[in-house]
Write a structure and sequence with these properties.
It is built from 5 helices and 8 strands, in the order H-E-E-E-E-E-E-E-H-H-E-H-H. The chain has 180 residues and is α+β, with helices and mostly antiparallel strands.
Length: 180
């Protein structure tokens, strides 16, 4: 959803980096301007996005009218947009967007599963777990996310994308282990 928007939208800054097969990260900042801006609520099948938001706000309204927003120092996870009615950038958004194509990243996910003690990081299991949240969840104000953003701010910009990919993998591990 956000990846498609960033590929075609006017951005103040966007730097895409391929980190591993099927895994890309984008450091971006949207310009000041007229907000809110509606973005298409569409995500390719077997794609996952993790937004590490460093500024601005993204507001999502689900089909059941439940509203969800991600702002500064929040992490938004997306695996399915079928339950999203609208998505609007409410104020100039900035952050790191991790985009995983589960089909292309399958080998990497298997390698990570071995690192995490053989826990299953199967994309279908991740999608099922996020499906319980209707494909969209925000992690905010936890000790874990606070530590992520504090560390992110201390890293050189050249390493921040890799760090967010590592933390995305950890978050998927925690999700599959039912710890979040």
């Amino acid at each position: 959803m956000l990846a498609e928007y960033l590929e075609h939208a006017p951005v103040m800054y966007a730097e895409w980096t391929g980190v591993a097969p099927g895994t890309n990260v984008c450091r971006f900042a949207l310009p000041d301007g007229k907000y809110p801006v509606a973005i298409p609520a569409a995500l390719r099948p077997m794609h996952f996005e993790a937004l590490f938001c460093t500024g601005g706000t993204l507001a999502i309204t689900r089909r059941n009218d439940l509203e969800l927003s991600a702002g500064s120092r929040d992490i938004l996870l997306l695996s399915d947009t079928s339950h999203i009615r609208t998505a609007n950038i409410v104020s100039p958004l900035s952050g790191m967007l991790v985009v995983i194509d589960a089909r292309s990243a399958h080998g990497c996910l298997e390698a990570l599963a071995e690192i995490f003690g053989g826990k299953n990081l199967d994309p279908t299991q991740v999608k099922r777990r996020l499906g319980a949240c209707r494909g969209c969840a925000v992690l905010r104000s936890s000790a874990w996310s606070g530590a992520v953003f504090e560390t992110l701010e201390t890293l050189p910009q050249s390493e921040q994308g890799r760090y967010c990919v590592l933390k995305s993998a950890e978050l998927l591990y925690l999700l599959c282990a039912q710890s979040v």
